[in-house]
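Quick check before the chapter quiz. The format below is the same one you will see on the exam, so make sure you can read both the input and the output lines.
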Amino acid sequence: MVFTDVEIERYARHLVLREVGGPGQQKLKAASALVVGAGGLGSPAALYLAAAGVGALFVIDPDDVDRSNLQRQILYAEEDVGRSKAETAADRLAALNPHIFVAGYNGAFDASTADELVEGVDMVLDGTDDFAVRYEVNAACVRHGKPLISGAIGRWTGQVGVFGRQPCYRCLVPEIPPDAETCVAVGVVGALAGVVGSMMALEAIKLIAGAGEPLLGRLLIYDALSGETRTVKVGADPDCPVCGNMSSPGTGEMSPKPKAGDNGGGV
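Here is the expected output.
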């Protein structure tokens, strides 16, 4: 895969990195990712993936931009209030990097769309705040053997983890918490979304380029008020309704690149 002179200039800081270099940047260009939720986490994650040169980005979100989003959802501006998040996000990402393919899907991620959206990409980033949607995303990733990078934030605390076939996200959260709260109810400091969303993009880049040690089967928890982080291991639950019947743990490695034309799906 040959880079143009403009691309070489654009990715110069990656190309001199020992852990990325030319081969890693080629992997980024050949990769595809689905971002579920173009909100507080999806915004910075998608921006950094686009800037990094991930070759195909798909963004799904059913909502329109609301003025209250602007405190943390950095893909949008005042003039975007009332516009589709997915379509606006796609426009911004394409403008940021014209050398990649970007598509926005203005709709919900649910049982009717999950397989079509997930099967044609290399990995999925989930930044939604709805546990039912998170469960659908996780189940689809397990079915299709795709790495899932999951992020969450609330108040001053955030977390990010990477899940393969085992353990999966459902091993971490086996049931929807009865006291589950959203940012609408409890609030969130805007900059925290940038921190965790950027971490999600960083984990995706590591997976694609084969750099370092991704947070596979681990959860990084960040306390913004204290400025402290801790990492905990997530064990595979043998009774997990999603991955409990798998014969062996997944590696988290990406599946082979889909054939040309397979990426479009319903996006």
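If your answer matched, good. Residues 45 and 200 are 6 Å apart (CA to CA).
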